[in-house]
Amino acid sequence: MRSNKVRLNNGCTIPVIGFGTYSAENDRETTEQAIHMALEMGYRHFDTAKIYGSEPAVGNALQEAIHVGMIQREDVFVTSKLWGSDHHDPVSALKQSLKNLGMEYIDLYLVHWPVSLKSRVTYPVPQEDDFEHFDLEQVWCGMEKCVEMGLCRSIGVSNFSCKKIEQLLDFACIPPAVNQVEMHPMWRQRKLRKLCGDYGIHISAYSPLGGPGNLWGSTAVVNNPLIQSIALKHKATPAQVRKNKIHLNSNALSKAPS
Ligand SMILES: NC(=O)c1ccc[n+]([C@@H]2O[C@H](COP(=O)([O-])OP(=O)(O)OC[C@H]3O[C@@H](n4cnc5c(N)ncnc54)[C@H](OP(=O)(O)O)[C@@H]3O)[C@@H](O)[C@H]2O)c1
């Protein structure tokens, strides 16, 4: 598999197919093994976040691959995300992520969710009094500082609605390069895709299989009768049915035959 790349609004390129590293179950060793296998299969884009706890595994697996000469740092695209309890200081949060990853820079840093949280919150479901006022302008100013300091090449957002994107564009000196959102055949984000397309913001799809087995997900995509009939016709699995040009960020490798 060789993943195509697309150009972002700042001139950087991003591999279209990414490998997600969120898992409620996997330990570090399992995640590292999965990343090694993904590299061998041709994945060159790895998606992590502070809150996933997978930054050390991603960093270690990639360092090993660089060490044995399989890849160079410039060959891989690493995305990480700013968690809501770190909104007051994106620069320090990214420095910590870089430490976790053992890297000098990442390719893309995203505001994970458009909500600010107090530092000690219940994850994954915050309670009502865990939220703080979300000062988007101040958070984005910190994100822009991360680019200026060379800690990341591109900045973007995740789980942002049309309204939030428009608010951000009102004051951003560096416009977001990416909006990573849930997107799959049952949730096609038509309005958001149109708006982001108009502003040159790349949409990255998470949970492309509908996140079966995840707290937020369901089997509605993989069990969809139309998708199943297409899979049957092509002697493929429902997870292998995909429309070209949809940008995926999937854990689908977890079901690849060993
Ligand atoms: N920005 C955000 O807020 C955000 C949110 C969520 C995810 N993400 C990113 O997106 C990545 C992918 O999300 P996701 O895990 O929800 O994606 P997904 O690909 O929609 O769902 C993955 C789940 O699908 C099942 N699966 C995998 N391969 C399959 C196959 N071939 N056939 C049938 N089922 C299969 C597995 O469930 P079982 O193990 O139960 O079988 C697996 O855990 C994450 O790792 C993370 O990097 C970002």
From TrEMBL:
The entry's active site is Y52
Whether Cytoplasm counts among this entry's keywords is no
**Where does the NADP-dependent oxidoreductase domain lie?**
17-211
Query: Site (Lowers pKa of active site Tyr): which residue positions?
Result: K81
Q: Which residues take part in binding substrate?
A: H112
Q: Which UniProt keywords apply?
A: NADP
Which superkingdom, per the lineage? Eukaryota
Keyword NADP among UniProt keywords: yes
Q: Which GO terms describe its biological process?
A: indole alkaloid biosynthetic process
What molecular functions are annotated in GO for this chain?
Answer: oxidoreductase activity
- Family under the similarity heading: Belongs to the aldo/keto reductase family.
Q: What is this protein called?
A: Reductase
